[in-house]
Amino acid sequence: MGSKRGSAMVEAAMIYPLVIGTVMAVIYLMIAMYVGAAMKSNLDFQLRERAMVLAKTGTRLEESQFTPSDKYGRGAFGQQIAFGERKEGLMTVLHGQSSHGYRANALVAGPLFRQHQGEVYLIDEREYIRKVDMIKP
């Protein structure tokens, strides 16, 4: 006859590694989602600030208000952004691109890379009002 105690030990030896691996995978997914959100936040912040400088409107906020305190957020938030401009009809579009690589500790062998893109329309209020006034009947 089989021992119930031995059977429970064998079942636990098979189930515990699966549970631990699942928990680790969920934690790594949460970190990856957080890094993506920090990168997108940084990209949007930098695009808005650059548009504000180019359009000569608004005031600059202190950088310390937007700096995360943890290592994942700081690494993603401090990335350099490549800016560019293009014309779409009468509007100027400012676009930016940011990429970030990080090492996922035991689950993935190599580094992981994330890339985000964003766009902001530059609006010159004086020129906009002048053109709208010309359209009025």
Task: Quote the average pLDDT.
Answer: 78
Element order: H for helix, E for strand? HHEEEH
Helix content: 40-55%
Number of strands: 3
Distance between the termini: 97 Å
Largest sheet: 3 strands, antiparallel
How does the overall form come out from the CA principal axes? elongated
- Helix-strand category: alpha+beta
Concise synopsis of the structure shown:
It comes from Aminipila butyrica. With 137 residues, this protein is α+β, with helices and mostly antiparallel strands.
Describe this structure in words.
The protein has about 140 residues and is α+β, with helices and mostly antiparallel strands. The chain has one domain (about 5-135). About 50% of the residues lie in helices and about 25% in strands. The protein has helices at about 5-55, 70-75, 125-135, and strands at about 80-90, 90-105, 110-120. The chain has a three-stranded antiparallel sheet, with helices on one face. α1 runs parallel beside α2 (about 70-75). The longest helix is centred in the first third of the chain and has 52 residues, at about 5-55. It is elongated and about 95 Å long. The mean pLDDT is about 80.
Task: List its traits.
TadE-like protein; 137 residues; transmembrane helix; alpha+beta; 3 helices; transmembrane; elongated; 23% strand; 3-stranded antiparallel β-sheet
Give the helices and strands, then pairings.
Layout (H helix, E strand, L loop, with lengths): L3 H52 L15 H7 L4 E7 L2 E13 L7 E12 L2 H11 L2
Antiparallel strand pairs: 1-2, 2-3
Helix pairs in contact: 1-2
Organism: Aminipila butyrica
Protein name: TadE-like protein
Keywords: Membrane, Transmembrane, Transmembrane helix
